[in-house]
Amino acid sequence: IAQDPKSAEIIKPILRGRDIKRYKAEFADLYILFIPWHFPLHKGPSISGNSVKAEKSFQTEYTAIYNHLLQYKSQLSKRNKDETGIRYEWYALQRCANTYYEEFEKEKVVWNRIAKEKTFSIVEKGILIQDSMHFFTGSSLEFLNAILNSKLINWNLNLIIGCSVGGNAGNSDNIKVLSIPKISPEEQQPFIELVDKILAKKDASASSATAAEDTTAEEREIDIMVFKLYELTYEEVLVVCPDFWLSEAEYAAVEL
């Protein structure tokens, strides 16, 4: 980027599976050169397969990055001899999700495919993820992040779907079958406000040398609201959360 500011267009921040934490990911200051097939002519319909024309354009428009990668052309050309130099150029990513890679640029909720316990993070626009993770984009992301990180959904995933058991741990389809109530934007707002408080505390902790701020109170509020949203009785709450911190009378008094 110092040599050519244009390089910033294809140097993207990236998250690994270990960076995904509850509610918010922890960026480890890692980056990837994101170069689709036939870049920078990849949006034109006329090019297919390895293209000398595309490579020349890449060399001209992104000289600093091209010269950097040129040092490794021999190794990069050997990655997949049946495809490199045939289906795509030697400098391009082997698997670039060519038809949907722009989805990775959007704000999204992200989780690990393979993990004993599913944790969900909101990831900002422009940050990419590795193939060890799945994600979805769309609306109501903060509300969904609250629901998915709750004790009830964690219990549901572990007990009913078996996300933490053997081979099922990597099955992303498990997330699709969750039943999440459809509520209005106004009804979602209390959940969103609590998520905003959690994210603000995590941001503050990340930007200072002090100990991480405790978000237990906010997360407990979300858990209670989720129990109420799903209309769990007090006895059912104790099945999901044996160490529940409210008395039966206190739980009964809570209203969404």
Describe the structure.
There is one protein chain. With 256 residues, the chain is of the alpha/beta class. Helix content is 37%, strand content 9%. It has helices spanning 52-61, 63-70, 73-77, 141-148, 151-161, 173-176, 185-206, 216-229, 234-240, 248-253; strands spanning 11-15, 23-24, 31-33, 108-112, 121-123, 128-129, 133-136. A four-stranded mixed sheet has the order 2-5-4-7, with helices on one face. Strands 3-1-6 form a three-stranded mixed sheet, with no helix packed on it. A hairpin with an 8-residue loop joins strand 4 (108-112) and strand 5. Helix 4 crosses helix 7 (185-206).
Short description:
Helices cover 37% and strands 9% of the residues. It is α/β, with parallel strands linked by helices and 256 residues long.
Question: What is this structure's SSE topology?
Answer:
Elements: E1 11-15, E2 23-24, E3 31-33, H1 52-61, H2 63-70, H3 73-77, E4 108-112, E5 121-123, E6 128-129, E7 133-136, H4 141-148, H5 151-161, H6 173-176, H7 185-206, H8 216-229, H9 234-240, H10 248-253
Parallel strand pairs: 1-6, 2-5
Antiparallel strand pairs: 1-3, 4-5, 4-7
Helix pairs in contact: 1-2, 4-7, 7-8
